Amino acid sequence: MNDLCTVILAAGQGSRMRSKLPKVAHQVAGLPMIAYVVEACRPFLAKRTLVIVGYQADRVREALAGKAVEFVCQPKRRGTAHALLQAQEALADFDGDLLVVSGDTPLLTSATLDGLLLAHREARALATVLTAEVAEPTGYGRIVRSATGELLRIVEELEATPQERQIHEINAGVYCFAAPALFKALQTIRPSAVKGELYLPDAIALLRDRDGGVQACRVLDPDEVRGVNTRAELAEIHRLLWRKTAMRLLTEGVTLLDPERTYIGPYVRISPDSILYPNVTLEGQTVIGEGTTIYSGCRIRNSTVGDGTVILDGCIIQESQIGDGCQIGPYAHLRPHTQLHHRAKIGNFVEVKKSIIGEGSKVPHLSYIGDTSIGERVNIGAGTITCNYDGVTKHQTVIEDDVFVGSNASLVAPVSVGRGAIIAAGSTITEDVPADALALGRARQINKTGFAAVFRSKQQKG
Ligand code: UD1
Ligand code: CA
């Protein structure tokens, strides 16, 4: 299968979205739309994957940062055929098959692409186009067939006759081409009379009479090839995608109390006997272990959560690693690069950033822990703050095993607290604390006997 190159069309603005952001960079369940398309193509291990960019190219590049793709620029948008022509030079020496997909069909699956490729290679066709039979074909190119059912051409909605608009078989915008034949045909495509654009679907009529010919391959599930052109379609895509993931998880042994109100991206994995309350959002490459419970209003992104952990209502967790048997929330915020080892506890209104919380350690109430390493069995009292930022640089706090930090302490970093030390409540700790020491960092209390009573009686008289 390696005699394959992939081209993803993604240069358009997507004007129907009415957005400053290029359409393919819009988020779908926490990932840019085009990332789904790249992912669907990935199993084919194409020799090269070219992404045609143009409108706000940098935003599209950013959306695909770290992916093994090359970018080709289409400086002016003159249509989908013109977009593909931009890749001609880069593919000059390539005589294999070209898989062409649009960046705006995020529900497309690898299985469907596999079927298309197989059909294309079996027939030794010059072009194979993916089509779908849909109830509502408005906006799509229509598949025109002969009386005997042969594929003749594709007509765009704008150019279609009233009869052609009655056709319910649509062009999915996904094709396989024999590369040399395609690029030859693209040279002869003429601009559309209506829009002045060069239409890639016109290549079908041009290749039809050549040796090898063209064919259509129908997709099994038409929802897969839905394009996103408007915000309404973006919302619809979300609904389909969340629903599909929810159904998969239900069959995999996960309890979703209300599947229609659970928002889980397609790459999320959850082990059996986990329970999700309504209104939970799981995004990106999140992995949830077995027997974990996530209560309402939580959003977890690109994070790993172990087995038997409980995440109470209203937590946000991003790019973090959570062990087994942890308890988090309610209303906790775990920012990127946080690690909770097994049985750690992060309680109400606690924010943790880029920190390690050791096994069995607890930060139960109202704390900020940033750039900190906490050992095992540590207790952090309510309201404790690590002061990690001096206005210029971030500094580290180290708290070793079995430390007890009293309530409302401020630990001014860089600072370290040795094993087994105790920090008195209300202390401001600016110097390192040795192991097993008691650190008091506050003014001594003075009690003035009888003062309050005298004060009150003076007030009453005067
Ligand atoms: C296209 C097809 C239509 C098909 C539909 C399926 C054409 C002319 N029409 O229509 O037959 O039913 O997809 O979803 O191809 N793009 C560029 N450069 C351009 C123009 C577009 O890179 O100059 C990219 C866009 O960013 C997008 C993709 O090509 O990712 C498709 O363009 P779009 O405008 O969405 O085409 P449709 O009108 O949906
Ligand atoms: Ca489209």
From TrEMBL:
GO terms for biological process, alphabetical: cell morphogenesis; cell wall organization; lipid A biosynthetic process; peptidoglycan biosynthetic process; regulation of cell shape; UDP-N-acetylglucosamine biosynthetic process
Known cofactor(s): Mg(2+)
InterPro entries given in the database record: Bifunctional_GlmU (IPR005882), GlmU-like (IPR050065), GlmU_C_LbH (IPR038009), GMPPB_C (IPR056729), Hexapep (IPR001451), Hexapep_transf_CS (IPR018357), MobA-like_NTP_Trfase (IPR025877), Nucleotide-diphossugar_trans (IPR029044)
Residue intervals of the Mannose-1-phosphate guanyltransferase C-terminal domain: 267-336
Region of interest (N-acetyltransferase), residue spans: 253-462
Residues annotated as binding acetyl-CoA: 382, 388-389, 407, 425, 442
Cofactor binding, note field: Binds 1 Mg(2+) ion per subunit.
Active site: 365 (proton acceptor)
Keyword Cell wall biogenesis/degradation: yes
Listed GO MF terms: glucosamine-1-phosphate N-acetyltransferase activity; magnesium ion binding; UDP-N-acetylglucosamine diphosphorylase activity
Region described as Pyrophosphorylase: spans on this chain: 1-231
Chain spans, region Linker: 232-252
Transmembrane domains' residue ranges: none
Gene Ontology CC terms: cytoplasm; membrane
Gene3D superfamilies associated with the record: Hexapeptide repeat proteins (2.160.10.10), Spore Coat Polysaccharide Biosynthesis Protein SpsA, Chain A (3.90.550.10)
PANTHER family, sorted: BIFUNCTIONAL PROTEIN GLMU, NUCLEOTIDYL TRANSFERASE
Function: Catalyzes the last two sequential reactions in the de novo biosynthetic pathway for UDP-N-acetylglucosamine (UDP-GlcNAc). The C-terminal domain catalyzes the transfer of acetyl group from acetyl coenzyme A to glucosamine-1-phosphate (GlcN-1-P) to produce N-acetylglucosamine-1-phosphate (GlcNAc-1-P), which is converted into UDP-GlcNAc by the transfer of uridine 5-monophosphate (from uridine 5-triphosphate), a reaction catalyzed by the N-terminal domain.
NCBIfam families associated with the record: glmU, PRK14354.1
Subunit structure and binding partners: Homotrimer.
Protein's name in the database: Bifunctional protein GlmU
Species annotation: Candidatus Methylomirabilis limnetica
Gene: glmU
